[in-house]
Design brief:
By secondary structure, this protein is of the alpha+beta class. 28% of the residues lie in helices and 35% in strands. The chain contains three helices and seven strands, in the order E-E-H-H-E-E-E-E-E-H. Strands 1, 2, 3, 4, 5, 6 and 7 form a seven-stranded antiparallel β-sheet that branches. Strand 1 and strand 2 form a beta hairpin. The longest helix is centred in the N-terminal third of the chain and has 19 residues. The protein is globular, with a radius of gyration of 16 Å. It starts with 18 loop residues before the first strand and ends with a helix. The relative contact order is 0.20.
Amino acid sequence: MIERAPQSSSDPNLDLAGRLVPGGHLLRVRVYYEDTDFSGIVYHANYLRFMERGRSDYMRLLGVFQGELFAEAAAEAPGFHFVVRAMQIDFLKPARIDDVLEIVTLSHEVAGASLTLKQQVRRGDEVLLSALVRVAFVSQGRARRIPDALRAVTAAHRDEAAAAG
C-alpha cells in the first residue's frame, strides 16, 4: 500500500494514530498478554477493541476530531458522534501473544446518515478477521445526515479504494 502523510495537526502524538493509505487507514497493534484468553490466543471481543481503534484513528487522521473538518461538522451538527449500527464479522484465523497485527480500515459506502467501513485484521499477508461495520452519524440524540465536508472526505477515500482495486 502507498502511504500518505497525515493532515497537519497540533497533536504531538499523531504518529500513534497509524497512517492513511489509499482508500483508508492502517494501524499496527501488538498483541499483549492482556489481549489473550487462557489458551494464549486473542479473545474474540478484543478484536472489536482493535477495530474501534482503527476506526477512531482513521477519523482522527481525516480531521474529524480536530481542525477545520471538525469545525464544519460541529457547526452543521452540534454534539455529533458516531455509533456502531451494525457489524458483520468473520473470524478466520487466531492471533497470538506478541503478534504484530495490522488493522486496515477502508471507506466502503457513504449513505445519508451512515458510513460503512470494511475492516480487516491482518498478520503480514494473512487475513485473520474480516468485518463490515456500519456506523450512524448522531447529533443531539438522533441520527442525522452526515455533514457535507465529512461526506466529501470519506467518499473521496471510498473512491480511492475502488480505483486501487
